Amino acid sequence: MLLRNLRSSIAAVRRFSAVAKVASTGAKKESGGGRDTLGRRLLGLVYAKRSAVVTIGKWKEEGGTVRKYELNRIVRELRKLRRYKHALEICEWMTLQKDIKLLAGDYAVQLDLIAKVRGMNSAEKFFEDLPEQMRDGMTCSALLHTYVQNKEAAKAEALVEKMKECGFVKNPLPYNHMLSLYVSDGQLDKIPEVIGEMKVHTKPDVVTYNLWLTVCASQNNVDSAERVFLELKKAKVNPDWVTFSTLTNLYIKSSLIEKAAATLKEMEKMASRKHRVAYSSLLSLHANIGDKAGVQRVWKKLKSCFPKMNDAEYTCMIASLVKLKEIEEAEKLYSEWESVSGTHDPRVSNIILAAYINRNQMDVAETFCSRMVQNSITPCYSTWELLTWGYLKQKHTKKVLEYFKKAVGSVKKWDPNQRLIAEVFGRLNEEGSVEEAEELVVFLRNAGHVSTETYNSLLRTYAQAGTMPLLVEERMKKDNVELNKETRSLIKRISKNCASEVPSLCS
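The structure assignment produced for this chain is given below.
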């Protein structure tokens, strides 16, 4: 659970981006002393319902100048901030301006944004409607990226074949897209063929090698990874921090700690203001090899480079301290985060909560959860799930059911954790708690997730209690749930027991 939180925190760091300053001519002074630019206005829209087109129109009415290179820069910043709707509005505004000449690269960006905002079908329609001269390598690559993002392997493969016919595969990008697709789909047997074909038409770049190393790491193949890295060096391709991060992870998994320390040292040299996300990866990797001094050194360097840490970085550092069993330091850092963060993100709190639960300190965990609420941090699904697991470990059935129900009730759409459901039923089965098992079935039905296994779990509980429920088959039919071999076996097994009354809540 802790590792899952850590992985999600790394993903959050990758999404982090500060709003860049956008230069603009025709600017006027605000009363606050800052420059009022078109970039500031567009980046300041924040809410999706507000219109970028209206903002540009108002700027022009006030005598402001609008230049294509400025708008392109603003679009880049909005994409970094994942503000795709406003970025698309700007792109579409530019297509209507007779004095702005758009290139294939501009249409490629617009296609990518359409896919993100309106979906793949709209992106395909946009591509089909483009002038023929604009359906070049860049727009084809943008469409290919859309297919890869949507895991449309057949369409991606067909498009790549057409790109080959048109001579649009003279750079690594299309091949890297296909490598990403096959890696995400687990079709690792296709990787060598794609790389071999790439070498015929173009040269692999650092992204290619990083994807290749990822395949080696997924197979725990140290020898293959080292051969790939040697090839990278012979090709005079400069490795980046991702290269060394992938190698370090592989060495750690393979218990090659000395090699891991060496690649980690190289990676640390590449961490900079430009590659901020590398610091979070460094923190977790140093923690994974038990290097407390390395964790502290990286954190100190990170704080010296940036005036404020984001939630994901606090999460990584707190998780690293917990992994190193430095609980008191983790608690101090958490208190620091509480005092400076305005997000009240429960994912940060969950790291400390998980630490208490893993140490079987359930009373401390309960107190900490109350502290979260007092400090306006709303517990999320993972918070309640952590507490459920904790009380399962302590065999505290009442608390297990209480927090399991809170977990499910905290989300609009529940993605059932089948292992957790099985463990909760297992607890009731162990005690022969028929009434609680029936209540759980009703709860799961109301949550929209009653299944054959749900009823099998219920029947096991009745078998343990030595009683038999009434009308099980009728209830399953009413719930549109099929009986399987185990269901029939359980019914036969408990049919000799005395029938019990079906609680009214089940009717």
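Interim note for the steering committee: The CA atoms of residues 10 and 280 lie 7 Å apart. The mean pLDDT is 90.
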